[in-house]
């Protein structure tokens, strides 16, 4: 925390900071600094297009984007029990369905071949660096293959962690951090939302209101965790905390 003597706010909160991005909270305003202007442009456009509650874009002065805080509280955090009710998780599933039913955003999305190549490359790095046990990598790489198939693209959030979904009175009142939004696989959003919170998958699916291939969901859980582990370690985060990425990978064994 950094105290301010002037400017009408009591403190600045560093929400997240690493070599690629930083987010600061100043009162009810979030200041997002990103080295990649493309991500900022995507966020601004996605917020304008999304048919669900989002923050307001207040101003943009590259590389800084200022957005409003959203009401409510986050659906939960990875590695901790969710404080949200079952009804809130159902509402989150319904909000995701509303997003996926919207017209596609007019920019390209992830390509399955590129994502498969990314998985192969990352597994090779994990094996070469001895970051994870070989059998853990091998098994989760096999599980992840279920997600490496063609899909009909929908408007996805692209980084729908539970910390990005805010609820109040069992209603979704805000979804934040839209820099990865694109046309993509609907099940990727559902898997990201329930990563580490498998006990709420049925609630999310109930709200989503469509049949879901559970093998693909598990595939995306493995894919996302394998891709994330090395990056998290290199940026000062701990994927080995209870309920986090390593536990997600171990659950597939």
Automatic annotation (TrEMBL):
Which residue ranges does the record assign to the Aminoglycoside phosphotransferase domain?
Answer: 47-211
What is the scientific name of the source organism?
Asanoa siamensis
**Superkingdom, taxonomy of origin:** Bacteria
**Which taxonomic lineage is given here?**
Bacteria, Bacillati, Actinomycetota, Actinomycetes, Micromonosporales
* Protein name per UniProt: Aminoglycoside phosphotransferase
> Which InterPro entries does the UniProt entry name for this protein?
AGP_Transferase, Aminoglycoside_PTrfase, Kinase-like_dom_sf
